[in-house]
Amino acid sequence: MIAPLQKLKFVAILWYQGESDAGQPKTYGTRFRELIESWRILFKQPNLPFLYVQLPNCETEKEADWAGLREEQKEGLKISRTAMVVTIGDGEDDDLHPLNKKDVAHKLLDAYDNVELFPNGYCTGPLAKGAVQTQKNAIILLFDTFGKEFSIEKNKDFELFQGGYSYKLKNCRQVGEQIILEVPENLSLNADAKIRYNWSNAPQAFIWNEEGYPSSPFELKIEQNNNRRK
User: Fold this and answer.
1) Where in the chain is the domain with CATH 2.60.40.1220?
2) How far apart are the C-alpha atoms of 226 and 163, rounded to whole Å?
3) Closest CA to 75 of 124, 117, 23, 28
4) What percent of the chain has pLDDT over 90?
C-alpha cells in the first residue's frame, strides 16, 4: 500500500489510528515505533517529521482498553522528530468517529510548528514524566511542559492503583511544573503502586497548558526517593 509512494518526498506524516488495536494494546508501542522507522527508511527521509493523534475520549467500545492504548502511543515520542496530539475533550463519548475535526487539525498544526523546536519528542499538552514518593505521604508528579505554563483545576481526583485496588487522592497542589499529591496517613504504598490520571476510555481532562490544550493521560509507577524523610 505504501511502496508506490516511495519516490515521493514528504513534508511530514500525519497519523490518526489506534481504535482497532485497543482490544490488545500491549505490543502497539513497539509496532508503532517500527512503523515510523520503516517509513523513514522507505522514503529515504531519516528526519521526516511524524505527527500523530493520541486516541480521544470515547465510551462506545466498552471492552476496549483505550487508556492502555493511549499509554502505548507515547512510545512514538522515543523517536526523534515525532509529535503527539492529545485529543481528550475533542472526541464524542457516544461516537467512535469524532465530529470535531477542526480542533484536532489546529493541534496538528501546533505539533508541526514545534516538532523541530523539540526534536526529542513533542506533545501538545503537558506530559507527565515521573512520580516520586518524597515523604511517607507525599508524591511529586514531574512534567515536561515544552516551554508552556500549565494549571490544574480544583477539587479533582487522581487515582492511586495498587494490589488490584483503586484509591482516590483528593488533596493536591501545584508548585511550578510539579504537582504534589497527598497520600492519606492510613494508606501505605506497595511496590506495585501507580498514579493514574484520566485513566478511562472517556475521561474529562483537568490539567491544561496556557493554550488550553489538555495533558496526556498517564499511568506512572511510583519511584522511591532514597533521601526521603521517614
Assistant:
1) 127-224
2) 23
3) 28
4) 87
